[in-house]
Amino acid sequence: MTKPMMVWKDSEGNFSDLNGNIIRETLDLVANVDEIIGERQNFIASIEQSHRANNHAWTKQTSWDMPPG
Question: CA–CA separation, 29 vs 39, rounded Å?
Fold first, then answer.
């Protein structure tokens, strides 16, 4: 089990730990990773939706829709 980390925010908006280390960059990185994961999930969902629409179009095609040949 890890120890809880004491953190405070200074007047410049930086978060610091008990040793005075600024951890804002770490928090920003976590936020960016979360955003990337969200975008990836949206991308995957759009691909799945496109595949479902394409499959639906193939199953609904009739001889009336097909070009002569």
Answer: 15
